[in-house]
Amino acid sequence: xxxxxxIKFYIKKFNKVGMYNPLNEIRYLITEKIxxxxxxxxxxxxxxxxxxxxxxxxxxxxxxxxxxxxxxxxNKKEFRDIKLNLNKYTFSxxxxxxILSDIIVENKITPKNILELGTGSGALSIALLKEFxxxxxxxxxxxxxxxxxxxxxxxxxxxxxxxxxxxxNWLDSFVNSDFDLIVANPPYIKTEVIKDLDPEVKYHDPLxxxxxxxxxxxxxNKIIIAxxxxxxxxxxxxxxxxxxxxxxxxxxxxxxxxxxxxxxxDYSKKPRFVLATNKKNLISY
Length: 285
Known about the structure:
The structure is a single chain. The chain is of the alpha/beta class. The protein is built from 11 helices and 9 strands. The protein has a 7-stranded mixed β-sheet, sandwiched between helices. It has a two-stranded antiparallel sheet with strand order 1-2. The protein starts with a helix and ends in an 8-residue tail after the last strand.
């Protein structure tokens, strides 16, 4: 079968199920699965697929037709400048989460000891260690399979000597704290909304990484209440939150005597990040 014929056939099928402009995804999957460079796909009109190549491509393209995300098909994802493996127990990191690292850099925060709660694939911890190579990280996750994957990703990205992993629920394993920075991207989607999410999300990201409870704030409440007795005066806390949760999480901080709070916006100008501390001069307004 000719490659161009296969591509045209699947473009029609993708469009029919409401997946518009799928050509880039199709070409990317072809590149990844049969090692055929993009430039060759575009410039050579008469590429004939071997039978085993055709079977392999049809298999993965049919999976994508069923709304399985590309990163799940390939079990890998890029985050900032790092390459990550994924598994079914880990949330697939989103581009918006990269802003957490940007906020730290742009606010001239130079942490030495970092705690990430709910590390998943290890994306954010690894990215922070690339940004701050003299720092140390403790990364937690409730799922041991996620921890195992995050360790492999830390090895792959050559930061394993700077990072330790703990399998626990949020702060349950901590009785004191010596962290300069605590970061988390907890589940924040309201339970009733999950059924309306795109199939790529609701069927392929782990539910535990999505479901924030009735009001979407269950994890934040647990973390903030547990943080209160652990914080040093100069500890900085940074959360990613839902598009309509910035003020609510800020208020939760203040109610628990974490008094200096600042919101930051995502690429869509929504207030999606909460930076907080008890030491006023650590945050510029």
